Structure formats: structure tokens, C-alpha cells
Amino acid sequence: MTAPSILPEIIVVEPRVFKDQRGWFYESYSARIMKSLGIRDKFVQDNHSYSINEGVIRGLHYQKRPMAQAKLVRCSSGEIFDVAVDIRIGSPNYGKWYGVVLSAENKKQLFIPRGFAHGFLTLVDNCEVQYKVDNFYSAENDRGIRYDDPDIEIEWGVENPLLSDKDARAPYLRNSDNNFYWGEESL
After folding, report:
1. Residue in 61, 98, 118, 147 annotated catalytic
2. Which of the following is catalytic: 29, 131, 147, 172?
3. Structure confidence by residue, pLDDT tens digits, 144-187
4. Cα–Cα distance between 121 and 23 in angstroms, integer?
5. Where do the domains of the chain lie?
6. Whole-prediction pTM
């Protein structure tokens, strides 16, 4: 169910898909399976985004403590390049990123724990992304990091992405308002 990640806390979930002449079926979420993978977060909110065009970048987003969020992300229509960045100050992987293609076809999901920023690039038009979070949205704790931060060097593969005004104005990681520290227990 999982694929190796250069960031050990990040988990790629590959569900078991049952196919026949009618189509397919799979469990998009099972607390029992998540627990067996080491994901013990209790999700409290589902989010759903739609991007009209290829080349949209949403992120890099996170919420500060005490409203930090773990996320379980999937792409239910289209195809995205999904990215997680370790932003835990003092972590040996601070500023490192991991990316994976999530699509309606491959049905993979990415688990991103607290202490990581998240973003994605749409690889085709008409993408729908759904993700569970383990804490509610908090505008006063909502933060971002620039997608093109030179200290992170994410290989997005796009030169002129479509961004929200908020994402275009986001600070670099070194200037971000971040209160995550490596080794702290309940991020």
C-alpha cells in the first residue's frame, strides 16, 4: 500500500482496486488500513478543489500551530503533481521536498503530516482534488511559502504557472511565519 519516500513521514497510499467489465471499485478511505500504515490521525473535514486549467499551482500551504493540519490528498478527476515540503525547523530534512503524480487513473493518495507544507500542480485541464484534514480551517493560522523558493528548488516542470494572488505574494521559507520544530511531539 505504500511507496518509499525520501521523507519518511510522507506516505503514498496505493489502494487495492477491483476491476471488472462494469468498471472499478476501491475504498478511498479506511481507518483500519490507514492505522496499519501508521496514519492515526482523525480527519474532521473534507476539502474539494477544482482547477479549470493545466498549469495551476496551489500552494505551498500550511496552518501554524495550534491549528496545524495533517492531510490525506487524492485527485479524483485529472492528474496533478502533488508536493510536500518539510518545514520543521531543526529537521535533518528541513526544506526538502517529495513529489508524486496523483491521478484519477492511478488512484494514489498522499499522506502529509503536520509540519509539512503542501502544494500541487495541475498536469491537465479540469482537475478535482479532494483531501481530508485533521483540524479545521483557521484563517488566522493559514500560511504559505512561495512555490519557486530557491532554497527548496521544487522541480515543477512549468515556467509560468497560474497562481492565486495570495500564492504569488507568499514569502520564501526563510521568511515564513512557521512555528514547527523537529522532534516536538504533537505538532
Report:
1. 61
2. 131
3. 999 999 999 999 999 999 999 999 999 999 999 999 999 876 55
4. 28
5. 2-175
6. 0.93
